[in-house]
Design goal:
By secondary structure, the protein is an alpha/beta fold. Helix content is 29%, strand content 20%. Helix 8 packs across helix 9.
Length: 413
């Protein structure tokens, strides 16, 4: 998910003390201190990647319960269990883990069950941080109607904090109206995670959060402080806005700044974001990229460069139309494998599974554009055992427009 130096994994060494000392931190409302860089867990980050991140010095991992969105919570748990780096291991060097509850599990009782699910998957007796992944369902992101609302879930989370089962709570995709409601709750949000990148900086909302934190600093308190986390800081959200190329990673200005210092664009973005008070969570399966992200403070952006990145807000470049790639294929998959929802994953070069969509019921379809040789796998939504229903490899020889009926071939795989 991020770009970095091209080191072989056998050459990598954990971040040294200077890297750790240079990394900014944030004291949460519960008095726990966390680093402002963590490993994102979406896009098919699996056990091997989590293990390498822990070995390299990461002390914060962001995951979630949603397999359909590319998360593998149970593999995070396995890596932490083997490393003995959980909070309950009485290790001063423990790795802080944050998970998220799917919006289809909104509701008081559903959230109680979801908390237990994360405890089991992560192999822990208590949870460092739990966020509500989305405050509501929309479109086809939920496979069933939730039991209740985010407010019902919040009550369950508050009780989990009271009992010591959860140490910090929060929510994603928050606007000012929702924040008004959250601040009226018995326990205010300790973490808020919103879309943040150079072209989408969420400035007005962030200023409000900053003012809350500044007031806490004046009072010498932390109990109402809010950690603002950015997701998709490297620009991944723009593909959902119709962009073929990531405008962040291809920005001429960002590339020029990175070239000046001999670093990657992600390193520039990580330093810029964290210096602006935003915690970043870049996902990566590549150990060299993971390490370079931790080394985002081996150089110092000038104030002029910081301001020039600030000035990108709200100004994504216009898209340039491209000639159609000769290997490009428009595909429609149809669900004949299950009566219930089926999740579709693209298999990346590291054999990671990247969620690209879902077919919500028998006969439902998913349309996408792919390329000759690309591989896809199909799983029942919510399946925890990793078993596949089917696998498909794109073959351009069948034409540039294809329709494929996906049947249950699990016994053959």
């Amino acid at each position: 998910m991020s770009c970095g130096i091209g080191l072989g994994s056998s050459q990598l060494r954990a971040a040294d003390a200077n890297d750790v000392d240079a990394m900014p931190t944030f004291k949460l409302a519960n008095n726990m201190t966390v680093p402002m860089i963590g490993l994102g867990g979406c896009s098919g980050v699996r056990y091997k990647a989590v293990k390498s991140a822990i070995d390299l010095g990461y002390q914060f991992i962001d995951t979630a319960q949603a397999h359909s969105w590319g998360y593998h919570e149970e593999e995070v748990g396995q890596a932490l269990h083997e490393a003995k780096r959980r909070y309950q291991d009485n290790n001063d060097d423990f790795v802080f883990v944050q998970t998220k509850i799917h919006p289809q599990d909104l509701g008081y009782h559903s959230t109680k069950k979801a908390i237990q699910l994360s405890l089991d998957r992560l192999q822990v007796t208590s949870l460092d941080s739990v966020l509500i992944h989305k405050p509501r369902c929309w479109g086809d992101i939920c496979s069933h109607e939730p039991e209740g609302t985010w407010e019902d879930s919040w009550k369950a989370l508050e009780e989990a904090v009271d009992s010591g089962l959860v140490r910090s709570i929060g929510i994603c995709d928050v606007d000012n109206r929702l924040l008004d409601k959250l601040l009226s709750k018995r326990i205010a949000p300790m973490v808020i995670q919103n879309w943040f990148d150079p072209f989408h900086q969420d400035k007005a909302f962030r200023r409000r959060v900053e003012s809350i934190n500044e007031e806490q600093d004046k009072l010498g308190k932390v109990d109402k402080k809010i950690l603002y986390q950015g997701y998709s800081t490297l620009g991944n959200q723009w593909k959902y806005q119709g962009y073929e190329d990531n405008p962040v990673m291809t920005s001429r200005m960002l590339l020029a700044i990175a070239k000046k210092y001999g670093v990657s664009v992600p390193q520039v973005l990580i330093q810029w974001a964290t210096r602006r008070g935003v915690m970043v969570l870049p996902a990566s399966n590549n150990p060299s990229h993971q390490l370079s992200n931790l080394k985002s403070y081996d150089f110092t952006l000038t104030e002029k460069e910081m301001a020039s990145i600030d000035a990108l807000d709200g100004k994504p470049p216009q898209q340039l139309k491209k000639e159609r790639d000769t290997n490009e294929v428009d595909i429609q998959f149809t669900n004949y494998a299950s009566d219930g929802p089926v999740d579709v994953f693209w298999v990346d070069s590291d054999e990671g599974h990247v969620h690209v969509g879902s077919m919500q019921k028998a006969g439902a379809t998913l349309s996408l554009t792919s390329y000759h040789g690309h591989s896809f796998v199909f799983k029942k939504s919510g399946a925890d055992d990793g078993s596949l229903l089917n696998r498909h490899i794109v073959d351009k020889s069948f034409g540039s427009t294809q329709n494929h009926q996906i049947e249950d071939k699990s016994e053959e795989l």
